[in-house]
Design the sequence.
């Protein structure tokens, strides 16, 4: 029988990524969708990943569309995270690393990064925590210690 010291801990890994944003009545939703697609490498853009639209009503009765793309394939998640890491500058990665405690929820195992929707449309990946953002939620497994999650994200190049 194996002792508790011999039990191997499973490594932290990303199980799913969800990319979402709002499209307000004053925005061109095709451009907003293009902002989301900026986060996808060409090999994922060529696959039939579908952005789901959900229409809601805003506070003043204005229509708001919520655009969501879910990636659940382990291989696609890995490709996406590697691509995202390659598109971010060291400054952006440092911002994510410095604010890790604000972005990682140990109860749910989720790491959330927000990027400027406007900058994404222009082809640049910039961290932003204002209202007009594309939110990237990374769902993680085997997250007993937040230090392990930090190391995982650092090893894949998403944070410094």
Sequence:
């Amino acid at each position: 029988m194996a002792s508790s010291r011999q039990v191997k801990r499973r490594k932290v890994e990303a199980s799913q990524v969800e990319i979402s944003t709002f499209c307000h009545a004053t925005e061109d939703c095709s451009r907003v969708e293009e902002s989301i697609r900026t986060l996808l490498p060409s090999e994922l853009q060529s696959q039939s990943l579908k952005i789901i639209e959900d229409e809601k009503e805003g506070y003043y009765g204005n229509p708001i569309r919520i655009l969501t793309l879910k990636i659940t394939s382990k291989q696609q998640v890995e490709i996406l995270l590697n691509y995202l890491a390659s598109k971010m500058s060291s400054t952006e990665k440092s911002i994510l690393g410095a604010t890790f405690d604000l972005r990682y929820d140990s109860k749910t195992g989720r790491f959330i990064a927000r990027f400027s929707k406007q900058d994404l449309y222009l082809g640049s990946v910039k961290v932003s925590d204002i209202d007009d953002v594309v939110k990237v939620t990374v769902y993680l497994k085997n997250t007993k210690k937040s230090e392990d999650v930090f190391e995982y994200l650092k090893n894949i190049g998403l944070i410094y």
Remarks:
- The first helix runs from residue 29 to 37.
- Residues 16-155 form a domain with the 50s Ribosomal Protein L5; Chain: A, fold (CATH 3.30.1440.10).
